[in-house]
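In keeping with the milestone schedule agreed at the kick-off meeting, the structural modelling team has produced records for the first pair of proteins. Each record is given below as a sequence line and a structure-token line. The laboratory manager (R.T.) confirmed that both were archived under the project's standard naming scheme.
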Amino acid sequence: MNKSYKILSYLCAGLLASFILFTACDKSDEDPKSTAVELLSFGPSPALRGGELKIIGNNLEKVSSVILPTNVSVSSFSTKTSELITLVIPEETVEGRIILKTAEGDVTSISMLTISEPIVLSSFSPQTIRPGEVLSIEGDYLNLIKSVSFSSNISVEATSFVSQSKETIEVRVPENAQSGPIAILNGDEMPIIVRSEMDLTVSLPQVSQFSPNPVKAGTMLTLEGSDLDLVKEVKFSGSAAVSEFVSQSLEKIELMVPSDAHDGSISLVAASLVEVSTSEELVMVVPEITEVSPNPVKNGEALTITGKDLDLVTSVSFGGGHEGTILDGATETEMSIQVPMEAIEDLVTLTTAADKTVTTTTILNLVQPSISALNPSDAKFGDEITIEGDHLDLVTSVIFSGGEEAAVNSASENTATVTVPVGATSGPITIVTTNGSQVISEIDLTILVSVNAIITDMPDMAAPGDLISIAGEKLDEI
């Protein structure tokens, strides 16, 4: 893994072409030669740290030291004559002006010395690492690096490095770092970015097994595997998730299974938000039904179901898709449900928060009302009759022979009252219950001739086939 970026290209023309030149003041041939220290040029620029810097001028033998930016003093020269000084550029040198120190004063360059900085990222170790552990990055000019970036744009600033030198950076891997290449940045406004050719593998939690399976909602599930201390959340199929655990270690997690957990794989969520799913699927426990009583049961009354794991049940559905009301006091082995008034005869279905269902093996029968007497059994339109029998509080309306239907005036366990509608004819009556079921009486109701109708006006004479008009009161009873 060797990848380097050379920030600046070097000047390859001759030495003089790489020098920075200065324009001196015009002097006549007659002027006496100056004794002042003069800096005419220096180079190369850009220059390499560790490379040679040449300074050309006059009276340079008077220079006691050269100050390179920033405040890097060099007094040991490779060459020192009146017209040339050569020196090795120290590693700590940065971009800036150079200063010649003399007994007569300082001479500062007008132009800037620039430094070529070939930042190199040669390797990192280890290649597989856990979040929180220290990653060692090897290379060159790493002292210039201001941040290390991990996949998913997670960065660590230089102020948080464990250590930093020209050849090595030690950095602690953030807990939310993801696997992928790493990058080092020098922090400039337009930064130099050097990326690794190989990926860093950040360890993720793994599950080798979990138990029990099947598991009951609300009970403890144990996950075993590796790096499980990195888990921040456990997701179940559906929308259930757990972030607070009974216990958590490197090799084990104990947690309570949510009531709305569904069958399916379990996902472990790391701080990096990367999810790791189990290959094995978790199966949720289903309630068991052993008995339903009473059967038949009356609409509106309580049905008792006994069995196993009934505390998982969140809803009970009756025939016609009507949901019953689960009464207080339900336990793991027994529960009571108020049968809906609209329920019809059918199987009963229990549903859990995990959308698991179990259905009775036999149809639930419903109590039907019975008719023992009609009082009176002879009536005219508008008369109220009383129906006698059992479970008549279930009756909502009465259908008379002839098809006319009337709502009951009142209904109780043993009686129901109804007004005979105009248009009813003699014959049996049919009572209609809250769930729409019908019971036909074995007793006939006799409709008496109406004595309420009164004719107040009609023609004295008419020919066969003529249309006549009759006026009066309660003529609809005729």
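The second protein of the pair:
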Amino acid sequence: SLPGAIAAGPVSKSSFSKYKILIESADRFKRFQTSDAVYYDDRMDYVTNEPTISANATGLFVIGWFSGK
């Protein structure tokens, strides 16, 4: 069983603003947000918080490769 996955991660504030996403929960990371990088841990945020299929597939390959099984 895998304990987690790789998420897309922070993007610039201007890139995020283009999507007009309404954040539902309080911004726990407000003090870290800048114009260069924003991240929201919110179910509505599919830009910075969505698991990436390609990154997770690569991660599984690397884990499998080094597991020696």
